[in-house]
Amino acid sequence: MENEILIQRAKRSVVEYNQKDAVAVAKEAISSGTTDLKKLIQEGYTAGMVEIGKRYDRNEIYLPHVLSSSLAMTQAMDILMPELEKLKGNIASKGKIVICTPQGDIHSIGKDIVAAMLKIAGFEMIDLGIDVELAKIVQSSVDNKAMAICTSASMTSTMFCQKYLERMLVKKGVREGVLTNIGGAPVTQAWADEIGADIYSENANEAVKKFLAMLGE
Question: Is residue 30 exposed (0-12), middle (13-18) or buried (19+ Cβ within 10 Å)?
């Protein structure tokens, strides 16, 4: 029962933009020693962000509300992720993944959820944030020897950045050494096929499943 209460509080803290309670729930979950932290993140904080995304799509809330919710989740994750790392012990990272929202797009909900879920699954995430220049994405993938690049485009106008990124990776001669994963509300499998992306993920759970499948897990 205690776990379920914390999960509901976590979700509510994100939906209600309550950064203070989001942090409090994370700390209580750790101190209890019995809370399933992965479940708390998935069914609590992440579920809250999904709800915020739906409300935003219905024009019930505005960008400042979304950013406040995202900050609440981020602050909670900053507390929870080190604990999850301890639980993993000395298990090696499954690989580094660069993730971002490309230039011209300041939406972060989808990216944040995917980043959190992939990190929980054991991948090392290099989150470049939002409105990121393509050259920076490419350079980061090279500098970090990343196995993959994930980009989330929430507008049709920024979908083309995903196409231009594919071209830039080829031009720089590094395309064969990195997987590309694309997602976002207007993005489809057909678009992934058209631009030559390796993976299309409709949501965070699908992204995790596809990356694990690529590793034979």
Answer: middle
User: How far is residue 212's CA from residue 209's CA, in Å, rounded to a whole number?
Assistant: 5
| Residue range(s) occupied by CATH 3.40.50.280 in the chain | 96-214
pTM (2 d.p.): 0.75
pLDDT digits (tens, 9 = 90+) for 149-175: 999 998 888 899 999 999 999 999 999
Predicted confidence (pLDDT) per residue in 10-37, tens digit: 999 999 999 999 999 999 999 988 888 8
Query: 140 Cβ partners below 8 Å, 6+ apart?
Result: 98, 126, 128, 146
Domain 2-88 of CATH type 1.10.357.20: no
Tell me the CATH class for 96-214.
Answer: alpha beta
